[in-house]
Fold each of these.
Amino acid sequence: MNNKVTDDLNDQLRALLDKESIRELVQAYCNAADRHDHEKMRSLYHEDAIDDHGAFFHGAAMDFIDKLPDIQATMRILHHNVTTHNIKLDGHKAEGEVYVLAFHQAEGGQGLFDVLIGGRYLDKYEKRDGVWKFSHRAVLADWVNIQEQTVVKLEHPFIAGSNIGRPGLDDPSYRFFEMFRRGKR
């Protein structure tokens, strides 16, 4: 194999590995948000990163993470699902547009209500010291479906005896997994 082919193949492999690392970063974000794992969330952003969650928060990502316990206090269920993920690489920097479906069950003045958001994450990533992290994340909503009274029925007989997911350390995944640990990527 000549050097040109080898160099091209190495470049393609590097791009593939970088994109996979970025995809894993985005998926780790969803897990950290859903499990209320603020230590893990902090590990996903560079120290000088910016986070723009619209009305909830705009500023330094570390300050956003400091506010997460208050933001998430009324949320009984968080369930983030990423779908289409477009990534453009430029050396040690990258940009990504990530489609997300995020379900929230929250407690309000009238009881539990549901919010289903179809939106996108507009991300900028940087690879520093060999690790990809968020340098800037903006969240936008393309559509929202709000149910003023929850339609979630976790006490329905159909699922009686099932393992039920929850935010925090009580989630069954922490008893099941040995390799996935709270606070770790």
Amino acid sequence: MDLSQQLKDIIEQHKHTEATDFDYLIGEGGYIPSNKEILTDIIAALVQGKNVLLKGPTGSGKTKLAETLSSLFNQPLFSVNCSVDLDAESFVGFKTIDYQEGKQIIDFVPGPLVQAMTHGHFLYIDEINMAKPETLPIINGVLDYRRQITNPLTNEVIKAKEGFNVIAAINEGYIGTTRLNEALKNRFIIIDVPYLQGEQLKTLIQENTELKDDQLMSQFVQLSNDLIEASQQGKVSEDAASIRALLDACDLSSMIPPKRAILRSIIDKLEDDREKEVVRNLADTLFE
């Protein structure tokens, strides 16, 4: 039985319950969902060959989730990091001059999209809403029932091998992002990925940082909760509440005082002095 069928069977067995337990499949260091229905629903979409769009604040674990799914399905993960400079070659590949039997030839070097399609692997498109709107239509045919693309550099029609899937991620509301058009959005199953909090966050700290002090871990969990609340109230940006930055602070706190770790990992990344002061005050209430 292949892994996709195994995952289908697990979902079928648990579809009338509130959550499906994938802990024994994920293993230590994998993504810890705030709600296990999130993981169940994504897996259900992927085993049916659907594209998944992960939507959530920065540092909420979208990339870690994509890596965990890649591991769960035992599929290599090719990645594209979007920006305003992204062009077709960043997806498809590029031509280069090579030598074969002493003769100069024009060779094509496949990009992450072509590699993922031809090998039947996963493609992860990070911050897809950072790409220029005119760049993304090139992948429309890849994302719908056709599962194919005409390589603009070679005119070759590339059809995706079975197992190929697309996982994309967006951070909404950031400078430089654009709204996804409906044609593109409709090609995805959309999953909201919230910040981890409470015991799930504490488990994440235990499994992914050098911090071993239980009391300090609990204090960092509370700091994260306070930062998320401050972000929701508009007092700080989402960057201040990033779980990624919090984990860096936890790592450093295993070797230096916590407030200095927070300064290096969170506060000094912020541009606004008022935001820095909010984070500093929250840290002062929790750490000596």
Amino acid sequence: MNDSHMALLCALHDEHAAPLLRYVLRLTGDDQLAEDVVQEALLRAWKNPDVLAQGPSAARAWLYTVARNIVIDDRRSARARREIGLETVPERARSDPTESALDSWLVADALTQLTPEHRTVIVRAYYMGQSVAELAELLDVPAGTVRSRLHYGLRALRLALQERGVTGR
């Protein structure tokens, strides 16, 4: 490891360790596990110097993706679920509620980054099923303003999710 690689790793840690720990703590609710996940994500960055060379924004996205995947892998493990192995595989695959829950937490965390106006219209339109006309009346603004807030709010939400390592599916 050369000095520039070490300097990049230190800068990566200094800039991203604390926010990454808060993010993982929201996902896990477990201080010790969150610290272990952040340590593992930073260790993987150290082992993968190409990540460091991509710049701070790409490195941050990579770290959040790695941390999220570590949490998902931990939750899926037999140890986490306290499962006993089966000799036969179940006939019907079940959806993974852990990934769905983590996605929900990730979106909720990203929503906190939006302005109150954007957050309000997104939550009321997409989660509460309110129409543009209903929102315009409720918020006492023109329907065009509601549509504009939805457009720019979704754009800001997409950026907030990308900062957390979520890419388009």
